[in-house]
Amino acid sequence: MAKTIMVVDDSASLRNVVCIALKSAGYDVIEACDGRDALAKLTGQKVHLIVSDVNMPNMDGITLVREVKKLPNYKFTPIMMLTTESQPEKKQQGKEAGAKAWLVKPFQPPVLLDAVSKLVLP
Length: 122
Prior knowledge:
Pfam families: Response_reg (PF00072). This protein is an alpha/beta fold. The protein has a single domain (4-116), classed as Response regulator (Rossmann fold, 3-Layer(aba) Sandwich), CATH 3.40.50.2300. It has 5 helices and 5 strands, in the order E-H-E-H-E-H-E-H-E-H. Strands 2-1-3-4-5 form a 5-stranded parallel β-sheet, sandwiched between helices. Strand 3 (49-52), helix 3 (61-69) and strand 4 form a beta-alpha-beta unit.
């Protein structure tokens, strides 16, 4: 059965690029446009990985990580930040919130897929 990955980004074009890469590698994808939308779509189904932007309207990625970690069904779901942010302070905030990896945009799809394959839950 295919693994499910949630992609959270307010840029539709970026979501599209990530989704094409993930789908071509055989993953199922759930798309969300910001943190609030992502939380609304986490309805108990198994999600093997969340890939999230940091800077988004309504709820930013780091707040999303904190909120996801409070949900019993998703407490152990790995979260990778995919963002233009590369400052050590932001990365530290992400790590403290519970993010497992940090990938800086622009990214190469093979690099993304390599990181995804290491993080995705069995």
